[in-house]
Amino acid sequence: MNYELNDIQKSINENFKKFCENEIKPNASILDAGDEKAVELLKNNIKKLGKLGYMGMMHEETFGGTDQDLINFAIAGEEVSKACAATFLSAGASCGLCGMPIRLFGNDKQKEKYLPGIISGDVIGSFGLTEPQAGSDATAIATTAKRKGAKWILNGTKTFITNAPIADVCLIMAYNDKEAGPGAGVTAFLVDKHTPGFSIGKPFDKLGYRGSPTSEIFLEDCEVSDDAVLGELGKGFIQAMQTLEYGRIGMATVSLGVAVACMDEAVKYASQRKAFGKPINRYQEISFKLADMMILTDLSRLLIYKAAWAKQMNDPEAAVLASCAKLFASEAATQIASWALQVHGGYGYIKEFPVERLYRDAKLGEIGEGTSEIQRILIARDILQKYGS
Ligand SMILES: Cc1cc2nc3c(=O)[nH]c(=O)nc-3n(C[C@H](O)[C@H](O)[C@H](O)COP(=O)(O)OP(=O)(O)OC[C@H]3O[C@@H](n4cnc5c(N)ncnc54)[C@H](O)[C@@H]3O)c2cc1C
What we know:
Blueprint: H1 7-24, H2 28-31, H3 36-52, H4 70-83, H5 85-105, H6 108-120, E1 125-128, E2 144-148, E3 151-162, E4 169-175, H7 182-185, E5 186-192, E6 198-200, E7 214-225, H8 236-272, E8 274-275, E9 278-279, H9 284-312, H10 318-343, H11 354-362, H12 372-387
Parallel strand pairs: 1-4
Antiparallel strand pairs: 2-3, 3-7, 4-5, 6-7, 8-9
The protein binds flavin-adenine dinucleotide.
Flavin-adenine dinucleotide is lined by residues 93, 126-130, 135-136, 160-162, 206, 209, 214, 364, 367-371, 373-374, 377.
C-alpha cells in the first residue's frame, strides 16, 4: 500500500491549487451575494473550469473529456471547493449529477447533444429528483410521464434543484408506470429549458451556497419525445441512485474543501491574533482545536480516496464507502467550521472574514445527496446484512 500521490496526481493538485487560488477564490465572497452579478461570475467560473479541463475529467475523450479516474477528480475538486464551495456545487451538478448519467446511460445522439457543451462549461445541467413531498424518500415522487401518441407528457414539481435557474437542461425523474414501482416504473427524461410547459421558480434565499442558485421546477403538460428518454424506460430510479453514489463522493469532497479552508483560516488567524500579550495559537485550547481539524480533514480525505478507488474498481463496497465518506466528511466539516469560527472570536461572526461564509456553507453537506440520518441507515443496513443475525 502506498499513500503517496503519484506524479500525475501531484501535478493535478498543484495546477488546480494555483488556478483556484488565482481565479476562483478572489470572487467567492462576491458570489455569496447571490445576485445577478454572482450568477454571471458563477457561469464564468464554470467556463473557466471547462477550459482547465475540470468539467471533462470524468468524461470520454470523444466528447472533449479526459476520462480520468475518480481520485484525480477528487484531488482537483478539493481545490475547487476550498476556493469556492458554491462553484464546486454548481459545476458538479452540471458535469456530475447531469453529465455522469448521460455518460453512463445516454445514447450517442444524447451524448453528442449535451456532453461537449457540459464539458466546455457552455451548457449547464441539473438533476431533478427531489420534490416537495419526496426528499429522503425519493420513491415518493409524484411527477408523472404519460404516453400521448409518440410523445411523453410530464406533470409535477421538483424542488431544491441546484442550477435550475441557470440550467440549459435538467434530468427529470418521473413515474411512467406507478404500479411497477420505483425499480421498474420511473424513467429519466432530459428536458431542455425552452420546452413548453417547463418553467422554474424564484431562486431560494438560502443560508449557504448562496452563489449556487437553487429553485423549483414546474412541469405542466410538458411535452417531450422519445429522444428525451435517458437509457432504458423504467430504469430512471436505479440510474438516479447510481448517480448519487458519485454525488455522495462529490458532497464529501466539497465538505473536505470547506473544512480545509476553515482550517487554513483558523491557523492564519490564530497566528496573528494576540490576547493577553501573546498569539492565541500559544493557548492549548486553540492549538488543540487546530490539531483536531488536521486529524478530521486527513481522515475525511482518506475515506474519500477509498470510496473513489472502490467506485472506479466497480467494487460492490463502493456504495457504502461513499456513504461513509459523505457522512464523515460532512459532519467533520460542520464541526471544523464551528471551531474555526470560535478561533476567530467576534471577527468570525462578520462577513469580512471568509470563515463566516464557510460556516454557513458547511451545513449543506449533512443534508444534500441524502441526509446524515439516511447515510447512517444505509451504513447500518449494510453492516447488518453482512454481520447481523
Ligand atoms: C441547497 C440544496 C441543493 C439541493 N440540490 C438538489 C438537486 O440538485 N437535485 C435534487 O434532486 N435535490 C437536491 N436537493 C435536495 C436534497 O437532496 C434534499 O433536501 C435531501 O435529500 C433531504 O430531503 P428533504 O429536504 O425533503 O428532507 P426530509 O426527507 O423531509 O427529511 C427531514 C428530516 O427527517 C430525517 N428523516 C427522513 N427520513 C428519515 C428516516 N427514515 N429515518 C430517520 N430520519 C429521517 C432527515 O434526515 C431530515 O433530518 C438540494 C437541497 C438543498 C438544500
